Amino acid sequence: MLETGQPAPDFALPRDGGDLVTLSDQRPAPVVLYFYPKDDTPGCTKEAIAFTGLVKEFDAVGAKIFGISKDTVAKHDKFRDKHELGIPLLSDADTHVCEEYGVWKEKKMYGKTFMGIERTTVLIDQDGMIARIWPKVKVDGHAEEVLEAVRAL
């Protein structure tokens, strides 16, 4: 798992709509990466809607927000359109970025063990360094907490 103060691993991933997003191209803006398990599930939908609701506030402080999951760009497009989401959704279909950021983990549900994304948010400062990590995110109030952390940079 990454730690605060380390350089954020760079990446280039496809996003909803088909464009490519490269992390290093976002500098000098602070960047919020929120990793989530799956499009159009209750918790992931609630989290995406919460970040979408605060887009103007994040824009006002110059920060960029990206949701990242293993889902395909086509699934991201449907998810975005269905819930009128206003944040870019990046597809890490091969889980390479999730593995680099330490969020691809063994999980258990209903007695079964499987690999999946642990809901995690990473705040990257304007210099490309990891400023804060929220592991095992609980969705309620999380987007607001992240916004406060961005404002404190």
Can you characterise this structure?
The active site is at 44 (cysteine sulfenic acid (-soh) intermediate). Residues 2-153 form the Thioredoxin domain. One of its GO terms (cellular component) is cytoplasm. It holds the Pfam family AhpC-TSA. Its EC number is 1.11.1.24. It contains 5 helices and 9 strands; from the N terminus they run βββααβαβαββββα. The longest helix has 12 residues, at 42-53. By secondary structure, the protein is α/β, with parallel strands linked by helices. The strands form 3 sheets. It has a 5-stranded mixed β-sheet. The two termini are 22 Å apart. It has helices at residues 42-53, 55-60, 73-83, 96-100, 142-151; strands spanning 12-14, 20-22, 31-35, 64-69, 89-91, 104-109, 112-117, 120-124, 130-134. The chain is globular. It has a single domain (31-151), classed as 3-Layer(aba) Sandwich (Glutaredoxin), CATH 3.40.30.
Outline the fold blueprint:
Blueprint: E1 12-14, E2 20-22, E3 31-35, H1 42-53, H2 55-60, E4 64-69, H3 73-83, E5 89-91, H4 96-100, E6 104-109, E7 112-117, E8 120-124, E9 130-134, H5 142-151
Keywords: Antioxidant, Disulfide bond, Oxidoreductase, Peroxidase, Redox-active center
Subunit structure: Monomer.
Protein name: thioredoxin-dependent peroxiredoxin
